[in-house]
Amino acid sequence: DITGNRAYRWSDAGGFQDLGSLGSNNSSGLGISADGNVIVGSSYDGAGRLRAMRWTSEGGMQSLGQLDDDEVSASAYATSGDGALAVGIGHVLVGDIADPGLPSGFRWDETTGLVSVEEWLRQSGVTISDGSTYTARATNCDGSVVVGSTFPVRAGPFLRSDLYIARGNGTG
Known about the structure:
Layout lengths: L7 E4 L3 E4 L4 E10 L5 E8 L4 E7 L3 E4 L7 E9 L5 E10 L2 E13 L3 E4 H7 L14 E2 L5 E5 L3 E3 L2 E3 L2 E5 L5
Antiparallel strand pairs: 1-2, 3-4, 4-5, 5-6, 7-8, 8-9, 9-10, 11-12, 12-15, 13-14
């Protein structure tokens, strides 16, 4: 008996395909590569933590890892055209505040693994302070650009968050 929400892929050849999960009955597909062979999103693991995931037609679903040991949840929102790179949001524990945690944009590829957008930019020679990126919601076709929002600031009675476009060295 399978209950919960599951990520699926549909193709002419195979119809609907359940993408599985990371140890629970819940997964979500949020981004897809140009050819449809890579899907990114999130899945709850066996311990009940929401983890960023990447599914490939060859390897199935795999966790993208954690920003650090204090990460409480993460979701991948977009992938490069070839599926080699993913971007998303990780929520990191701050003090004793367990939920939702402090968001941070991340970038993942097989070479560097999961790193904050700030760390990726530092590796490209950019000077940037931690906590500058609040989200990472999109990337370009080759993964060399990340788009997201900055940490919200109070502007009168409202919270304002600016958008950023970051370009680092290398490609996905």
